[in-house]
């Protein structure tokens, strides 16, 4: 979720009732060498423990990155063994590490030894269907000191195709005594119930399902806890929420970059609201003046709702 679960998005998820939020994936080597974008990603969200996710394939960079994160106020270090991006796996990081479990575990051991913080791991089922080794890696990670495992119910070779196979996470939950979190295709309370039942996991993680509807995380959390769920924002409340999210992104990135980064979020909000033609979207998706974008938002959402009616 690099480029998506930034500080403004995490703040919204926390506001609606997420139990935990995790930073965007941070390249450990870039963080250590002072890359401004990685330093930005290190900023905490508000109101919840600060979980920093690091990626890398060399122990020295990960160790130094973990120490920088700890000094910056992190509460938990999460190591990424799950990213399927070619840019990441071509560098032998992310889910490519599941092809070399011994190296993956040496990274875990180095980070656990280097920090006093809890260390967790995010992974996939394996590299492909011939190598479903998540349970073995999870067992070894627990023995190395990892405190929680999150498993996306796809292999790396699936990327985001087909559907998540939550039942294949069950071998992981049966292999370890630490909490296991199931991830992938959890779009609401119904999917959360089924994913937990099939996987035997202790919790769910929502990623792409929160795009354009960050309140979903709180609704799922309330459902699982037996509490009243926060209502889905509608009408002027939704327009105000999107406008506030947009302005927060401008503050996070600066106006020139923020205008561009925010476009995908506006698109997802519109997708969640209903059918909107590309022609109707084009003005707001190409506009560079934030004031014009904020004027267009109510018009576009009202058009969407009138078409749905």
From TrEMBL:
InterPro entries: Aldolase_TIM (IPR013785), DUS-like_FMN-bd (IPR035587), DUS_fam (IPR001269), DusB-like (IPR004652), tRNA-dHydroUridine_Synthase_C (IPR024036), tRNA_hU_synthase_CS (IPR018517)
Domain DUS-like FMN-binding, residue spans: 1-288
Cross-referenced Pfam families: Dus
Gene3D superfamilies per UniProt: Aldolase class I (3.20.20.70), Putative flavin oxidoreducatase, domain 2 (1.10.1200.80)
GO molecular function, one term: oxidoreductase activity
Reaction catalysed by this enzyme: a 5,6-dihydrouridine in tRNA + NAD(+) = a uridine in tRNA + NADH + H(+); a 5,6-dihydrouridine in tRNA + NADP(+) = a uridine in tRNA + NADPH + H(+)
Keywords: Flavoprotein, FMN, Membrane, NADP, Oxidoreductase, RNA-binding, Transmembrane, Transmembrane helix, tRNA processing, tRNA-binding
PROSITE patterns hit by this protein: UPF0034 (PS01136)
Known cofactor(s): FMN
Entry keyword annotation includes Zinc: no
Membrane-crossing segments per the record: 12-32
EC number per UniProt: 1.3.1.-
Enzyme class: oxidoreductase
Function in brief: Catalyzes the synthesis of 5,6-dihydrouridine (D), a modified base found in the D-loop of most tRNAs, via the reduction of the C5-C6 double bond in target uridines.
Similarity annotation: Belongs to the dus family.
Name the UniProt record assigns to this protein: tRNA-dihydrouridine synthase
Upper taxonomic lineage: Bacteria, Pseudomonadati, Pseudomonadota, Alphaproteobacteria, Hyphomicrobiales
Gene symbol of the encoding locus: dusB
